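Structure request: Alginate lyase family protein, Algoriphagus oliviformis.
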Amino acid sequence: MNSLRIIALVFWMGMGAAFAQQVTPTSQSNLLLTDKGVKDYTRLLAEKPTSVQEIAQIKQKIDAELGQPIQVPMPKDAGGGYTHEQHKANQLSIFYGGILYQLTDDSKYAEHAKNLLFAYAKIYRTLPLHPEKKEQTPGKLFWQSLNEAVWLVYSIQGFDAIKPYLSEEDRRYLKADLFQPYVDFLSVDGAETFNKIHNHGTWAVAAVGMAGYSLEDENWVKMALYGTAKDQSGGFIKQLDQLFSPDGYYSEGPYYQRYALLPFVVFAQAVAINNPELKIFDYRDSILIKAIYAAIDLTYGGFFFPINDALKEKNLKTSEMVFGVDIAYSITQDPRLLSFAKYQGNFAPIDAGFEVAQALSEGKEKPFAFQSKRFRDGEKGDQGGLAIFRAESEKSNSALVYKYTAQGMGHGHYDKLTWLFYDNGEEVIRDYGAARFLNIEAKYGGHYLPENNSWAKQSIAHNTVVVDEKSHFNGKYSIAENAFPTELSFDISNPDFQWASAVLKEVYPGVAFKRTMFQIQDPAFEYPLILDLFEVQSEEQHQYDLPLHFNGQIIYLNTPLAANKSQLLPLGKSNGYEHLWNLAQGKAHEKLSQFTWLLKDRFYTWSTKTSASDELIMVELGANDPDFNLRSERALILRSQGRGNHYFLSALETHGSFDSKNELTVNASNQIQSLELIEKGGKKYIEITTKDAGSRSYPVE
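Returned structure:
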């Protein structure tokens, strides 16, 4: 048992009697906005009112609601529907009403929050499960218990803020008729989710734990920290142990790292305020602070890398990241974090947020320099990882993302050893992300679309090798969750020559993968060069498909393809192939196939070593999609047949420019003329011949 757990257990044993004697919560605020934050706001309002415009905007929103009838409809709609959105709006109104009462001492805001809480207290105990309930995790106010937990995370902060306004009878009533049944629903009725090591579990424990602190209920706090059995079999501490790698990488990927951060950091902040002796932000070598920095690093242009089930619209301006950045700054005092707070344009109305507002008003922010780095995956950091190679200069702003992580639980995709590439502010080599229209009820009720399973999760939807038109691990979660790549090497010591290599012993029966990716800055090339060596180990005959999901307008292909002009047919029947229209296909070049496209004002050329027996297939997404759920995106597939070991050797060049206004084109042609994998002295090298700078070779290992 680690030292934090020992300290926590001793603390609870000593404090149990004191908690047990209190049947009614006191009027003292116990959560994220305390007297310190109120004093900071008051001073800023007097001295630098423009620095706290966020509060003026919140006040304007709540003032517009005052005097209007309270709207607490009976739950009916799924995500995005009227009742769903109204209950979400109410959770913020309770939260903001409480915040404004604390900051202004104006009772009208407390009364507004109180009326909303009382309206929920009248109905919550007798509410049945939501009529549109999700089978695995049903809610009552919402279609899933996840949203139920989110509601309480916000609303309990509003309640905590208005406790001085409430009478003892009011506080007792709200606990008995609203919060007690609410907590019971999340933790007792929903024990499976509550104890789950998953973002749903994180939201649930944060909600119950924060309610426990505000209502001074020891049992709720202990359940939140250690699981419903209070034996460390679940709960917040176990989630901190298992959901993050030692580098702060979250097991479900960047998109869910962003989403899970809010309950992690707000509950941790509540723990820090109420039990500072637990030093929660120091736990696991400051794992939560690492996670906040990791979330920032897992972005390009502010947007999260769309790995696993991810929606591409999410960026660093989301509320989760606002809370995360503010709380991280309050702990670290790192002025680089302020640059993100400035980019976000607002702050969380809590102690940490007012500290950030003060620092920004004093101009303390410093730029954050993104650098190449690798995040290990897995609780112990031994389940692969994610390598990010960045080239930051006046001319270049690129990022190569090499994904060799573990599965990522239920939100993971079957895309072992895949990659993405960003440049010039654009996603050049892309990943589809998730097939979903979140909270748009008219589109499949806001659920993940059926195509999320039939397309987005399938291997052909990613930039990795697919064997015999079957997805990795045959698309079986139970197999994929127990298989993860092993990192062989990672080196960023030389900014001109950086690489990562990983292997996975059995992706298909008898088939192993090894991929090594390089970022090279060489005067022979205008921009950083990406090299890719994908080695397949097998003794059997197989078909190998390597898709390139490019973004941009096709310019040139050095081998002719026969277009299917009169009839389009799907490329295959299953595993994602059924969604690809076969636009054109033909023989690959006998030595080196080269494909150039234009994105915005820059050219990109993919060169790949091929033989005359290989095929190239141009495909477009949209087949077998009667409801038009999928985006129309194109990919070029390199198809090879062979027995025994096989390898793909490719390079991605960035070059030239196109000025459409002045009709000026520069360097539309690439440099590479040949690619070869050779051996010298028992070592492998990639040898490249260029048009203008002759030959050069780069070591593989």
